[in-house]
């Protein structure tokens, strides 16, 4: 099956294609063309042993009661891969094994730092494209990756357990801040009230704190209903979106060109600027959501002068806005494309990269990272 056939199968929700795609993503491949942005992504984090897998299992049951399809990405510490965690999670969620509305993927961390987030994001994208309504991301509960992984969810649930001593003190501040909902799990154990007051002292009524006994399924319905009602953060996993930012036009003389664009054509205000580094004078004209960028060489050493000498005045480049410049560039390079520079910061603080015309079909392509 070639990648586009695979993507088509994923979009149909084919389980074997989904499983195959998960393996590819875990091997570091990206799958362009996955449509997405529909799934509700729920992050579940908290220290090891807090009951994240048990809670996830109970949440799956609750979500299924509503008839929604749910997928899980569970990240496990690799140190326990041979024995505990991975097997434990599987057994814990096994009762959903036969349910075709449920897909569970356990992923080992392999101890690698910084590699977790892209893979997790890739898996979420696959499940999203395959039509799962809810995607639960269960994090491993340790390390720096934790915060980044949690951040790719619309809402982040932090599980804490009573009777652990200075529980709140031990939790990294970063996680406390990104949590949208606090769950006091194992509230069948002593100390649940005390923990409640400790959390409340941190969040001052700004975030919900709920109690649960995940192992008994207690409090899960309330939790799910609370989760659905929470404001959702910007979806980090949304499908890439492309938009023409501007068309760069190399002209002999900006004032003369403006005579046409502003005068005869009647376009509005032009923002004038001189970019010494590139040896160009620039005039930007707004055209709906996009812009026309007129470029005039300052002297004959300018790339614009060379361009005009070689090709004559005309379209010099097309600039496209993308959300995740790093991911897009990585894909281009992997597919054998020729990128002209490392992502760098240009005018207006925008990060950009140029792609060689030989790669794009004849036009210089500028990719600009969209400001979020
Ligand atoms: N008493 C009690 N035990 C629980 C509860 N939820 C989970 N556990 C137990 O806590 C242990 C760790 O659970 P697990 O879900 O693997 O935690 P994780 O490491 O955060 O994924 C297991 O033995 C669970 O059975 C709860 O609400 N009450
Ligand atoms: Mg677990």
What is the topology?
Elements: H1 3-11, H2 15-26, E1 40-45, H3 52-65, E2 70-76, H4 85-93, E3 102-108, H5 116-129, E4 134-138, H6 145-150, E5 155-160, H7 167-170, H8 173-178, E6 181-184, H9 192-203, E7 209-211, H10 220-229, E8 243-250, H11 254-264, E9 270-275, E10 280-287, E11 290-297, H12 303-311, E12 314-322, H13 325-334, E13 344-345, E14 351-355, H14 357-360, E15 364-369
Parallel strand pairs: 1-4, 1-5, 2-3, 2-4, 5-6, 6-7, 8-11, 12-15
Antiparallel strand pairs: 8-12, 9-10, 10-11, 13-14, 14-15
Helix pairs in contact: 1-2, 2-5
Guanosine-5'-diphosphate binds at residues 46, 48-54, 88, 92, 185-186, 188-189, 213-215.
Largest sheet: 8 strands, mixed
Strand content: 15-25%
Q: What spatial order of strands do you see in the largest sheet?
A: 9-10-11-8-12-15-14-13
Number of helices: 14
Distance between the termini: 36 Å
Q: pLDDT under 50 segments (min length 5)?
A: 79-85
How many structural domains? 2
Structural class by SSE content: alpha/beta
H/E order of the elements?
A: HHEHEHEHEHEHHEHEHEHEEEHEHEEHE
> What hetero molecules are in the model?
guanosine-5'-diphosphate, magnesium ion
Shape: elongated
For the record, the CATH architecture of the largest domain stands as: 3-Layer(aba) Sandwich
| CATH third-tier fold name of the largest domain | Rossmann fold
């Amino acid at each position: 099956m070639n990648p586009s056939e695979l993507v088509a199968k994923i979009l149909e929700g084919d389980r074997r294609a989904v499983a195959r795609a998960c393996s590819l993503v875990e091997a570091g491949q990206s799958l362009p063309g996955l449509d997405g942005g529909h799934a509700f992504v729920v992050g579940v984090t908290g220290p090891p042993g807090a009951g994240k897998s048990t809670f996830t299992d109970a949440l799956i049951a609750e979500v299924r009661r509503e008839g929604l399809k749910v997928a899980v990405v569970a990240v496990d510490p690799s140190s326990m891969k041979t024995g505990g965690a991975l097997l434990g999670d599987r057994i814990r969620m096994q009762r959903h094994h036969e349910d075709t509305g449920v897909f569970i993927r356990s992923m080992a961390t392999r101890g690698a730092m910084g590699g977790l987030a892209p893979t997790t994001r890739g898996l979420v994208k696959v499940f999203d494209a395959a039509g799962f309504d809810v995607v639960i991301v269960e994090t491993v509960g340790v390390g720096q990756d934790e915060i980044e992984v949690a951040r790719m969810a619309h809402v982040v649930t932090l599980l804490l357990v009573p009777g652990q001593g200075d529980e709140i003190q031990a939790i990294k501040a970063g996680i406390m801040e990104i949590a949208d909902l606090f769950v006091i799990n194992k509230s069948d154990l002593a100390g649940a009230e005390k923990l409640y007051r400790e959390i409340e002292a941190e969040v001052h009524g700004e975030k919900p704190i709920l109690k649960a006994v995940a192992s008994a399924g207690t409090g899960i319905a309330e939790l799910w209903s609370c989760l659905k009602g929470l404001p959702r953060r910007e979806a980090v996993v949304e499908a890439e979106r492309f938009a023409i930012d501007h068309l760069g036009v190399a002209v002999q003389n900006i004032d003369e060109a403006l005579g046409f664009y502003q005068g005869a054509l009647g376009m509005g205000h032009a923002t004038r600027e001189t970019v010494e580094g590139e040896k160009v004078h620039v005039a930007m004209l707004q055209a709906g959501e996009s812009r026309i960028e007129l470029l005039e060489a300052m002297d004959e050493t300018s790339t614009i002068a060379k361009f005009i000498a070689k090709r004559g005045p005309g379209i010099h480049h097309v600039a496209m806005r993308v959300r995740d410049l790093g991911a897009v560039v990585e894909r281009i390079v992997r597919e054998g494309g020729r990128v002209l520079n490392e992502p760098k910061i240009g005018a207006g603080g925008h990060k950009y990269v140029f792609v060689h015309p030989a790669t794009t079909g004849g036009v210089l392509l500028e990719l600009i990272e969209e400001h979020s």
